[in-house]
Design goal:
With about 270 residues, the protein is α/β, with parallel strands linked by helices. The chain has one domain: Ribonuclease Z/Hydroxyacylglutathione hydrolase-like (Metallo-beta-lactamase, Chain A, 4-Layer Sandwich). A seven-stranded mixed beta sheet has the order 6-5-4-3-2-1-14. Strands 7-8-9-10-11-12-13 form a seven-stranded mixed beta sheet, covered by helices on one side. The termini are close together. Helix content is about 25%, strand content about 25%. The chain has eight helices and 14 strands.
Length: about 270
């Protein structure tokens, strides 16, 4: 399998994972469908090969109009929880009717699903309010390889530690630096939410979670970790790296997902 981040942050999130000529988008909440198509081609994947669009939750930086356009144009259904689709429909009329057209396939939380060539395991995650729907993290398996993907989670439940440990490739949120967040001048209610149990992960929280993933004594560990969804206002790549690099074994690759452009294409 191969993996690429096309955009990551509060301005929009899109990634892709694929095996051969078939792949999945993970979220589609940025820019336009044309920009996603162009980025996919640049990464070596034809848009026609997208078999589905995994959507983590209903916030617009994850579930945007490109998801609807891709579903219609390429017959690639949105794969998400029913509550997440309902929340997206409440937010924007554009999404209404997708279910009738067969452009949505509903996933249940904490369950295994098969779509095209991909085995997908869903995990419930704590994030947001009713507007988010039912947020999910995912593991995606194909051809003996496993990708773990989780952003927008206020805490890391133990079952996500186990899921990351069993993956070959991990993308995990590292949203904010605590000092930058509390001194940002943002409204108190926003700071309280971001730093609360249903908000986002700080660099230190991500570091602690990954330290638990790489505790000695287990039979399998990831080979590569990508930090995603960094706040533009309240984080810096060098701060995230400084917090997390010391908590990882030296042989494990560590990368930052770019905000506005495509990452390298990584082999899983």
């Amino acid at each position: 399998m191969r993996f690429v981040v096309l955009a990551s942050g509060s301005s929009g999130n899109v990634s892709a994972v694929w095996n051969g000529t078939r792949g999945l988008l993970i979220d589609a909440g940025t820019g336009s469908s044309r920009s996603i198509e162009s980025s996919l081609r640049g990464a070596g994947l034809r848009p026609e090969g997208i078999a589905g669009i995994l959507v983590t939750h209903a916030h617009s930086d994850h579930f945007g109009r490109p998801a609807r356009i891709f579903a219609k144009k390429y017959g690639a259904p949105v794969l998400t929880h029913r509550d997440t689709y309902a929340a997206a429909c409440r937010r924007a009329r554009d999404f209404q009717g997708m279910e009738t057209l067969g452009h949505v396939r509903f996933l249940t939380e904490n369950a295994d699903h098969l779509h095209d060539a991909f085995q997908i395991r869903t995990y419930s995650v704590p994030h947001g309010t009713e507007s988010a729907g039912r947020p999910l993290a995912f593991t995606i398996r194909c051809n003996g390889r496993t990708v773990f993907y989780a952003t927008d989670l206020g805490t890391v439940p133990p079952y996500l530690i186990e899921a990351m440990r069993e993956a070959d490739f991990v993308l995990l949120e590292s949203n904010y630096d605590e000092e930058m967040e509390v001194t940002s001048g943002r409204p108190d209610h926003l700071i309280d939410w971001v730093t609360g149990p249903t908000g986002h992960l700080s660099n230190d929280q991500a570091a602690e979670a990954l330290a638990r993933v790489f505790e000695p004594g287990h039979g399998k560990y990831p080979k590569r970790v990508v930090l995603g969804h960094l706040s533009e206002e309240c984080n810096l790549p060098e701060l995230a790296i400084a917090a997390i690099r010391p908590r990882l074994p030296g042989h494990v690759e560590l990368h930052i997902a770019p905000r506005y452009e495509a990452s390298a294409v990584w082999d899983v």
